[in-house]
Amino acid sequence: MIVRVTEARLVRDFVVWLRFNDGTQGEVDLADELDGPIFEPLKVQRVFAGFRLDPELHTLVWPNGADLAPEFLHEHLHVPA
After folding, report:
1. Can you tell me whether residue 50 is helix, strand or coil?
2. Above 80 in pLDDT, residue 43?
3. Residue 3 to residue 17: CA distance in whole angstroms
4. For tag attachment on the chain, is the N or C end more exposed, with fewer CB atoms within 10 Å?
């Protein structure tokens, strides 16, 4: 199955709640994942909060062109017990 993000919302700071097409849902903290030139601007919380769910890529994208693979997000998901 190809993993796709179906819903996303900001929880706080750099934590995003996600739901995937396989029914999995939970939070991912991206604070320590914002490395490299394209992600550097996202270290400003106001900029980070500007993400949207791209309907074609099925993942989070930002206005500066940054995006994260849905597989990466799925792997880093914290699913409540």
Report:
1. coil
2. yes
3. 16
4. C
